[in-house]
Structure formats: structure tokens, C-alpha cells
Amino acid sequence: MIRQTSRLRGGSGSALPGLIVEKMYPHFLEDMLAQLPDGVVIVTGTNGKTTTTKVITGALEILGKKVLTNPSGSNFTRGIVSTVINNVSLGGKLDHDIAVLELDEAYAVQFIKRVKPRYALALNVMRDQLDRFGEVDATARLIEQVITSTTKFVVVNADDPHLVAATKHTKAAVFYYGVDASLRPQFPTDDELLAKLEKKPIKQNNELLVKLKAYSHNTPTFLVDKKAYVEPFKIQGGYNYQNIAGAFALIKLIIPSADNDEIIESLAKVKPAFGRGEIIQYNGKHIQIVLVKNPAGFRQALNTHEENEDVFIAINDDYPDGRDVSWLWDVDFTALKSNGVAMLSGTRAYDMALRLRYEEVPAYHVIRNISSALDQYFSNTKQSQLKIYATYTAMLAIRNYLVGNKDLGESS
Amino acid sequence: MKKIMILNLYPDEMNIYGDSGNVLTLTRRLQWHGYDSEVIFFHPGDIFPNDVDLVIGGGGQDSGQKKISNDLIRIAPNLKGLADSGVPMLMICGLFQLFGHRFVTENGTEIKGIGIFDAETIAKDKRLIGNIVIETDFGKVIGYENHSGQTFLKNGQKPFGTIIKGEGNNTDDRTEGARTNNVFGSYLHGSLLPKNPVFADYLIKTAVQKKFGKTSALKKLDESISARARESAESRPR
């Protein structure tokens, strides 16, 4: 019956079948997830949830677990109900070992009222889409509730003071990951993001289960059990490696028998998620799309800017992007000063143009309509490398223009 | 080169929603108008500087407001002296609230303000969020509001503007912000000044005239980008 309901939409991640099942079977979610022998993992935080969830899921699968996970964008309770419906057998059985769920802070608080996670991974608390949650402190309180309701192991970014403070009331065992002191300036916390004075020293009294020691553009070095592990990854970017240190720690706790070499090799094989540093070949050009949604994420993404690439920035202000574009003024764009920006697009292209004007970064073209901007860009450029920074709905439009609806990360 | 000193109040605690864009806009426009500028980042406990031509402050979270409120009261006489002498100031959101008499937070605690504006702010359940357009002495001013505190002006306190679109100070009286002499308070983020160059130049011109006496009019700058940004912002849903 449940599966038939899902066939009404045949859909992955859509909310309608979830709505119907929830009406007929109110404890559906609790009962189904209770069958999983390794329980439920919640991945939460402001930045990096989608990529980190994909990395944990991919690595656990390589290590032999059958993993239930929610497609990005359906990270609300009803979307998770739909994910379960699509995977449950006719007899109401889930034959997965574990669920790894990406949950937006606000939705996570709804979810934990019904299902207590066995594991939680908390990545960071940053100012983001504040028009939805209010304030950074409010977001931290939401994450604290998730950590407090977790039953077995909590893995927390030791470099984020909001998160360290949020572990106070949990009965679960708390483990930390972090970055080496030499890397700290590259990973500012929300409080440091705009502080004009020298950085305050960050306490790091906690023993770290996994530490990001160093990284080059595609190769992180992790320090685990006093030994260095170096491996080239499919996913790039220091901010991803910081989160992957957390994923590494989490997997050690989930599968204590796995050795560190096995874990890092499986982590390294996972490809970037949809529009998150994803690389697309288009008309002989090498294009990387980077989702940007808040100052910390945009700033970290700009750290990967290379001199030999064109830059295209698309800023939309639809609801999923956040209606407020004030945050663009908190991003430091000086990295783009020498080459300038080839094209600005999106509903708020001119806010972005204004931002760059005050930073004295040249912006060569502004076309609000995204398809027209891409048409114009591709008909004029000779450059073979392009980096696109885009807010959520702009990213979807750009991907659709370049590859249609294909999810390249899964298919290849 | 002639130099304008900008005092930026509590940049570590009161900097939410991109308000740092206001400081950048002033320094760049001063540069484009042919003036040098220096930003003094003022932190709790700092000695109040003697030479101040412009004062800027931003929004913060409740926790940030609590951290700086005692220090703000400490420097209130300095700020009131500058306000009385006509120094231009712009206080956004959290500091706008504390430039009134008091702010009563969600859990009923009262944070004392410095009373440059005859106003008080009460936290309410409903957050007032969205694009906002107001009519002011400087024409239409466009920004984004995001606050749960509602501010009520008293005894003929002049507002900064009246609402064309959005909520402003509160859900009742269609006023936005406050103005006393050249001290302005407002809920508008965006940042406020980049998209509202006429108002930005009023602050600059006032500071320049006060410091250097009668000067020639400010240069006309290219406002084509801010004009387009204003058009887009105005056309977007609330």
C-alpha cells in the first residue's frame, strides 16, 4: 500500500506521498527507521551539509554498508518520509544498515522530536539566510537541540566555539575534529569573519580524533592516531577538507573495525555533489560551478580562485537563495581584483555590480537574465577555464543550461 | 589631502547583515570626491577619540547588544556632544535601537539606551522581514529590513522616512527610523548607503563642511550602477 502511494508520484524526494502516508500511518517514520541496525546519522550545520553527506554516504557504501540517504533539497521531515517510502519493501522492511540524513537546522529540530539520531555531525554555524532563522545565536541553539538528543556519538568541529558550547547537555560521547593551527586563519568562525582586530586565539584543548594538517588544491593531509594520511581527492577545496575531517571521524566511530587507510581511500573516491564544485565540460570548456549562499562559503570559495580562469557570478534573490542580498557586503572580493569578473547575472546582478564597484573590482558585463548572460559569455570568450559562483536557484538555472537535469555526480 | 575621520562603533559586536558596506561606501565616495579618510574601529573600553567627523554603527544580535550597552552608556556624553554640534551619524538596526531610551528584549529584560532619539523599542514575536522602500528628505531610500524589535517614536520625534513598501519602525504607524539634527537611525540593511548615494553624499557633505568650512559642491559621480540596483531592488517581491 505504501509503495503504491509512492507510485502516485513515482517520485524521488517529492513531498506528496509522504503527506498521504503520514496521514494514514502517523508513526511510519519512527517505525521504519527503528529497523536500521546502525541507526540514523544527522549531518547539520550552515555550510557543507550536502557535500559532507554525500562523502559519508559514498564512503560508507564503499566500506560495505547499505546506506539510506535523502536527496539534497528534500531535507525536511516530509521529504525524508518520501525517501523512506521509495526504499521500503512491500512488507514494510528497510534492508539498509544506516541512514545518513542532511538536515537543515530548523528541520532537524522537527525531526528529532520523532527520531533520536544515534550519531550527529555538526559542521559549523555561520550567518546565512538570516531572513529565515533570525540570528546566528538562534541557529546555534537549534544545533544544540540536535546534539542534545543524539544517543551515542556526536562529532563536532572543535574550531567553532558555538558548537563546542552546544555539546554541554548531551549524554552522547563527544568527539572533535579540527584544523591545524597553521590553517586556522583560512577558516574564520562567524565571530571572526568581520572582526577588524587581530584574530583571537582559539582554544584547542580537546583531543582531536581527526585533524586536517595541510592541503594542496586536491590533496588533503589528515592526522589520525598520530599518523599522517595523504591522498588525492575527487573533491577540491580546503573548506571541503575541513568538513571531510569530520566525516572521517564519524566513519571511524560507525565502523571501528575499518582501518584508516581504507577509510581515506573510500572518502577520496567520492565525487562533488550537484553544483557544489562540480566540474562540467561544455563546448570544449572546463567549467566549475560553485554554490554560494553566505559570506563564509563565498569567501572560502574565492580562496580557490586561479589567475587563468574567467569568473561568472550569478546572484538571485528568490526564496531558496534568501531574499536579502546584504551579505554580499560581508564577502571580501579582493581576490578578483587583478582579473576582474567577465559576467554578472541573476535578479540581483546590479547589487553584485555595485558591490564590485565599491571594491574597485572590474566587472565587464552585466546581464540579469541567466540564459542570455551565458549565451553572450560563450559567444565572446576565448578562455577555456570558467568558474561560476551562483546562488541556489541561479546554480540550478546554469546547470540546466549546461547539462539539462542530469545529475553528473551520480551517473559517472 | 584633507582627511575625514570616521568612527565605526563596535565593529566586532555590531556588524550583522552586511552593515560594513556603509563604512566602505563612505570611504570610497570620500576618495572619489577627493578626500582622504580614516576609519577608527571603536571597541568596548577604548578611549573616545577627539577628532571625529562621521559616526557609523550597525546591527547586532541581542547578545552583541548586551555586550556593548554599558560601554555605549559610558561614551554617551561624547556622542551627545558630537550630535549637538551637528556631526553626521548613521545607526542601523541594533544601534538605532540603543540610540533611543531603551530596548526591552524578548525575555523582558531591559537594555538601556542613550536617548539621542526620543524613542523606545520593544521586542515582538513577529519578525519584520523583507524589501523596504521609504520616502525621506533625500528622496526614495531602498533597503532590506529584518528585526523583531518594534520602535515607537515619542513626543514629535522626527522619523527618517515614511513607508512606501514594508513595515519600518513598527506594524502600526508607517514611520521608518529617526532623525535628530544630523543623527540618523534606520532599520535598513542592504547595505543602506551603496544603493542610496544621495543620502550617502548628504552625510559626506555635512561632515566635510563642518570640518573644512564652506567648500564647493561634491563632484557628480557615475550613479548608473546604483540606479539599476535600485530599480531591481524596488521591483522584487517583499
Summarize the structure.
Chain A is built from 17 helices and 14 strands. Chain A is of the alpha/beta class and 412 residues long.
- Largest contact between chains: A-B, 35 and 39 residues
* SS elements, strand count of chain A: 14
- Radius of gyration of chain A equals 21 Å
Please state how the strands of the largest beta sheet of chain B are arranged side by side.
2-1-3-4-12-11
Spatial strand order of the main sheet of chain A: 2-3-1-4-5-6-7-8-9
Total of DSSP H or I helical runs spanning 4+ residues of chain A:
17
Largest sheet of chain A: 9 strands, mixed
CATH architecture of the largest domain in chain A: 3-Layer(aba) Sandwich
Q: What is the fold named in CATH at topology level of the largest domain in chain A? A: UDP-N-acetylmuramoyl-L-alanine:D-glutamate ligase
Q: Approximately how much beta-strand content do the residues of chain A carry?
A: 15-25%
Structural class of chain A: alpha/beta
Provide the low-confidence segments of chain A as ranges: 5-13, 196-203
The number of helical elements of chain B comes to 6
Q: Per CATH, what is the topology of chain B?
A: Rossmann fold
The ordered string of helix (H) and strand (E) elements of chain B is EHEEHHEHEEEEEEEEHH
Quote the average pLDDT of chain A.
87
- Rg of chain B: 17 Å
Explain this structure to me?
The complex is a heterodimer of chains A (412) and B (238). Chain A folds into two domains: 2-269, Mur-like, catalytic domain (UDP-N-acetylmuramoyl-L-alanine:D-glutamate ligase), CATH 3.40.1190; 276-411, Alpha-Beta Complex (Protein-Tyrosine Phosphatase, Chain A), CATH 3.90.190. In chain A, α11 (238-254) packs across α12 (260-269). Chain A is globular and about 55 Å long. By secondary structure, chain A is an alpha/beta fold. Helices cover 37% and strands 18% of the residues of chain A. Chain B has a single domain, classed as Rossmann fold (3-Layer(aba) Sandwich), CATH 3.40.50. Chain B is built from six helices and twelve strands. Chain B has helices at 20-32, 62-74, 76-84, 94-98, 197-212, 224-235, and strands spanning 3-9, 36-42, 54-57, 89-92, 102-104, 110-112, 119-136, 139-153, 161-165, 175-176, 178-180, 183-186. At the A-B interface, α14 of A face α1, β7, β8 and α6 of B.
